[in-house]
Design goal:
Layout (H helix, E strand, L loop, with lengths): L1 E6 L2 H12 L7 E5 L6 H10 L15 E5 L4 E6 L8 H4 L2 H4 L4 E6 L13 E8 L2 E8 L2 H12 L1
Parallel strand pairs: 2-5, 2-6, 4-5
Antiparallel strand pairs: 1-7, 3-4, 6-7
Amino acid sequence: MNTVLDLPDEAATLEFAARLYRHLPPGCLVYLHGNLGAGKTTFVRGCLRSTGFTGAVKSPTFTLVEEYALPDRTLFHFDLYRLNDPEELEWMGIRDYLRPGATCFIEWPGRGAGLLPGADLDIRLEILGGSRRATLAADSEQGRAILAAWAAG
């Protein structure tokens, strides 16, 4: 079952991300889908801001991954848009990032097909004129627990 949210502006996207992040345990894997400019990095920024992180949050389009050391975990933000071959994930040591104490957000996960494990949550962001729409789907037992806790408030 999918959950759909309308996000009228950037502030709504940041608030949605902050609320959801409170329910994401360490070890969670979240796939972020959407066209360029759909709000994937804005979503990650909202998650980080909810932890008190005040530094720059940029898309890792050229670096492939950005690491954020938080008090309770490490957060990794991947952008696989420029990945030419899923095997590149092996060369960069993807398995080292996907560890129990880390939370990972992966933009453009389809580019890592065959090498990435299944996500706990799939979040699809769509541009609708000047607003956005988020569609959330749980792809694991942990993902279903996250969405249930988030829905309960």
